[in-house]
Amino acid sequence: MNSNAMYFLVGLMLAGLIGAGVWVYQDSHRDGVEISVGRGGVSIERH
Known about the structure:
Layout: H1 3-28, E1 33-38, E2 41-46
Antiparallel strand pairs: 1-2
Transmembrane segments: 6-25
Keywords: Membrane, Transmembrane, Transmembrane helix
């Protein structure tokens, strides 16, 4: 494997890791309303 391919793979892995980190951060800080319907009725929670 030449060095260009190695750099490409390392860069691809880093980009994937950064993208996953951003997705997890945004998912944990998402504001909104959650509506659930169950046996106990309708539940509305604000985040």
